[in-house]
Amino acid sequence: MDRRVFLAGAIALSAARLGAEGQLAPKVFRIGLLGGSPPTAAEASARLWDSLIKGLQELGYVEGQNILIEGRWYGERTERLPALAAELVQVKVDVIVAGATPAPDEAKRVTSTIPIVFTSHPDPVGSGLAASLAKPGGNVTGLSVLSRDLVGKQLQLLKEAIPGISSVAVLWNPTVTTHTLVLREAEIAARSLKVKLHVLEARNPIDFRSAFSAMAKDRAGALIVLSSTMLFAERSRIAELAAQIGLPAMYMFREYAEAGGFIAYGPNLRENWRRAATFVDKILKGAKPGDLPIEQPSKFELVINLRTAKELGLTIPSSLLQRADELIQ
Q1: Please, which residues bridge with residue 172 across strands?
Q2: Residue among 268, 269, 229, 224 at smallest CA distance from 250
Q3: What is the average pLDDT score of the chain?
Q4: Both 252 and 273 in a single domain?
Q5: Quick one: 86 and 151 in the same domain?
Q6: For the whole model, what pTM was predicted?
Q7: How many domains does the chain have?
């Protein structure tokens, strides 16, 4: 190539990169989102992604200006996750923000180089996703929801709300690997509280009818629902089925109580998604994900749906009502 042609091209390229005031145009980062439902969905999961976007905006990131967003959504078909995660790798995103499990775990299987930020992992260390909370290592970091540690407290709150219960059904999804770890903790807590557990699985919504029929047959006194993407998406239906058989149910997130569930105890998901933006910011500024400590929730919400309690014929002890963060009338 003629040297003068080369220099002219280089000068033109440099000029194109300059803004109106002679400054270099900002780098545009590509952020991949991997989860069940998109931000445009008409449900609570959309508000979670909206919290992430707002968190990014608070840090100075604007879609179409300095970030581009690539979203991949699997709905209820978790078998699509590997292919969807691979698509994000192929379009060369700078970071992947993975929602609830199993999205982070599948993303990790697909790439060991692209940074991954998870928003609400139940047990990143116990599942093998991270080496430790302080130093996760590899290409992952994010926020935990501590469901493994919370299930014992949830059982305790159920016994306080409904004195005298001796059996509790547990609805879980065996396709979610962390649910096995949570069940172990639930069994330990149940022995301590002298409660018998009836463990029932729901791999997809088709399994709900048989699971709730079994709960009624076993005469369970209450229900604990282990949260997953599928169960979260179906929370209104789960609340309806529990009401039909007169079963008070404990959930992990306030969104379940807002959808008609009896009681919820756990971290604030929307805050987790908003906080995930700070991890993305640090990574885009050069931090290594494996060096960023995994955040654990510092505050847990107790939300009681009084309308549901009334329909179930329950009188909630005043000591529990006074500790509630929100009472839904």
Answers
A1: 201
A2: 224
A3: 89
A4: no
A5: no
A6: 0.82
A7: 2
